[in-house]
Write a structure and sequence with these properties.
CATH topology of the largest domain: Collagenase (Catalytic Domain)
Largest sheet: 6 strands, mixed
Strand content: 25-35%
Strand order of the largest sheet: 9-11-10-12-14-13
Structural class: alpha/beta
Oligomer: single chain
CATH architecture of the largest domain: 3-Layer(aba) Sandwich
Shape: globular
Number of strands: 16
Radius of gyration: 22 Å
CATH superfamily of the largest domain: Collagenase (Catalytic Domain)
Order of helices and strands: HEEEEHEEEEEEHEHEEEHEEH
Length: about 425
């Protein structure tokens, strides 16, 4: 009993120390770091484009050196004087997806990427690491942040037009989501705010988000485009819009993305934000969500609501796609001899790290599709774009199709853990 009390006391001391760690190392401001991720036939590279100081910090203030997921990218800040790690975060990128496409063969490209970090009080070493599908490091670079460097840009002051759609808590305690307009002209301003409110309301209607309204802030940020709509390359339509978003990313007709990431972050400089939703003013079907980067969705398609929630599952939640089709363009994306990092798909290589503890004792592994009603949580073959070798936790889920009205229990549990990670 005395040993137990001693352990509890040590944990409380460590937690208290972690709570003070933010003020020890960081100011209540943001350091935005812009990079170019590039590759040619011989190498993968990371280049620093610029560093930008911005007012306020909307990110987490506790658990600063913990990672929500071990994903395909990692950014780490170390105190230059001691070498101690003071902040870490993980991410995915459109560039990482491009590396596995046929388009990469014989072609060199670079992609913009921006990351938000708490502003260090002292000199700091920032490390960026990119990993391949096997989670092996393929590129790495380090650079210094020096507080009095006169060439670090300072942004702020100019207020973008914005409107809060849901305000659950203060910036330092809630998760701040910015919703940006894309392909809306000045005449369509009111439509954007209606669509943005719809997006926020729909996300907050789903478990576990609806259980924690106090943990969410949604703000709509207005940016006018010259043209209405977005580019649809397959039919030869190219529009002049604020963020140059387009369908047919990597020649997949429904994949809607933007590679103008610097412009996206420039538009948000005057509002607190951690996560980004971009609403594309189009009736075309499609979307895209990239973990800890952004999500894009079509605001005028009849599937707007479910697709918005699905893509937010990617960009905020780090959830993998649970759908699969014979001959899917992305089939084979996950090597079958390693465990995917996404919490809701598995190759059974390390199933203990996934949702094994949520299975009833009599659940067969794998679980047959015909037994889906008997086992609401199981191990069903098919997921991650592959019909064989990749497994999902439920027969139906928001991460599998647009008609199922909720996340499966495993996705709900994963999202719940993330909300706690960012807010507790």
């Amino acid at each position: 009993m005395r040993l137990y009390a001693f352990v509890i006391a040590i944990v409380l001391v460590l937690n208290a120390k972690g709570a003070n760690r933010f003020d020890d190392f960081f100011a209540d401001s943001t350091l935005r770091v812009d990079y170019l991720f590039g590759a040619d036939a011989e190498r993968v590279s990371v280049f620093l484009d610029k560093q930008v100081k911005m007012p306020g910090w909307a990110g987490r203030r506790n658990r600063l050196t913990e990672l929500p997921y071990e994903s395909s990218g990692l950014i780490t800040m170390c105190d230059a004087a001691t070498g101690d790690t003071i902040y870490r975060n993980s991410f995915s990128s459109l560039f990482r997806e491009w590396l596995d496409t046929d388009e990469r063969v014989g072609r060199a490209r670079a992609f913009q990427n921006s990351f938000l970090l708490p502003l260090p009080k002292a000199e700091t070493i920032i490390n960026v690491e990119l990993k391949d599908g096997r989670l092996s490091t393929i590129a790495h670079m380090s650079h210094h942040y020096v507080p009095d460097d006169v060439l670090i840009e300072q942004r702020g002051g100019t207020k973008a037009e914005h409107r809060y759609l849901h305000r659950g808590g203060s910036v330092d305690r809630a998760i701040d989501v910015a919703i940006l307009s894309e392909g809306y002209t000045e005449a369509e301003r009111d439509s954007f705010y209606v669509h943005a409110q719809t997006a926020a309301d729909e996300i907050l209607r789903y478990k576990p988000f609806c259980d924690h309204p106090e943990n969410w802030n949604f703000v709509a940020v207005w940016v006018a485009s010259q043209d209405s709509g977005v580019s649809v390359p397959r039919i030869g339509e190219w529009r002049n819009t604020s963020f140059s978003s387009h369908f047919s990313t990597f020649y997949s007709d429904r994949y809607l993305t933007t590679d103008r990431i610097f412009d996206v972050h420039d538009a948000l400089v005057s509002v607190p934000y951690e996560h980004i939703i971009i609403l594309a003013n189009t009736e075309e079907y499609g979307g895209g969500g990239i973990y800890n980067s952004y999500m894009l969705t079509s605001s005028r398609h009849h599937t707007f609501k479910p697709v918005c929630v699905h893509e937010f599952g990617h960009s905020f939640g780090g959830l993998g796609d649970e759908y699969f089709y014979e001959g899917d363009l992305m089939e084979g994306s996950y090597p079958l001899d390693i465990e995917p990092w996404e919490p809701n798909i598995t190759t059974l290589v390390d199933f203990d790290s996934k949702w094994k503890q949520l299975l009833p004792d009599d659940t067969p592994v794998p679980t047959l599709n015909k037994d889906a009603k008997k086992y609401p949580v199981g191990v069903y073959e098919g997921g991650g774009y592959s019909t064989k070798g990749v497994y999902r936790p439920a027969d139906e889920c928001r991460m599998r199709n647009n008609t199922y009205p909720e996340f499966c229990p495993v996705c709900v549990a994963a999202l719940e853990r993330l909300i706690e990670f960012y807010t507790r």
